[in-house]
Every structure is written in C-alpha cells, then in structure tokens.
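At this stage, I put together one protein's amino acid sequence and its backbone structure tokens, which the following lines show:
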Amino acid sequence: MRERQRPVAVGELPAGQRLPRTLTVAAERDGATPYRGALELQRRLGAGAALVTERAAGSHGVAGGRNACVDGHVERYLLTGTTPGWRVTCAPHPEPAPVTLDEGAASAPRALLPPLV
C-alpha cells in the first residue's frame, strides 16, 4: 500500500498535546461522502469530536442556510468553539417545492416562473 493511502491516526498526538474540540456535520444519505465515513472520522478524532447529523437527508453540503438546526450548531461552534455534544441529530431540511417549466403553467396568473417571451 502506498503511503498516502494509509489511514492517518488523526486522534493520536504526542504526549501532553490534545486535539481541540472538533465539529463534523453530515447527512445520513449523502452520496458524495457516505455517513459511515463521518462516524469513522468521529471515532478517530476521539472524545473531543462532535457529530451533527441531518437525518434522512441526501444532500451534500449540509451547513449553510437550508437547515436552521444544523446551521445553529455550526454558527455556535465557529463563534464560540462550543460543540453540541457527542452526537446530535437534526430533522432534514425542507424539500423545495417543485417548479414546472411547462409553458401553460408559466403563463398562469399564479405561476412561480415569469411568462416565456
């Protein structure tokens, strides 16, 4: 196995040093970064690692505006360094309302899209 393919012992530091508290955010059904990877990262980081999970969500990039619960934990961590606990779960973010590109629907008085020109 080549050197760069070996797992890194991220939680092991020289004697007398401690890894600062960390926050990991993950979605249970994220296809780009599988959830089991977040669980493994938390295990490797050790007792100071917190994991915020968006339940039943399948999108990548969980933090940043779509889920107030997740964003609250992330903002608190960034502003104060406080983590929410070992494992915290948040409900999934709301699904967007479907939008049609149908010409008839676009010209309807209550259309979500402007009429086609």
In short: Helices lie at 35-45, 68-80, 103-106. The beta strands are 22-27, 49-54, 87-90. The chain has a mean pLDDT of 80.
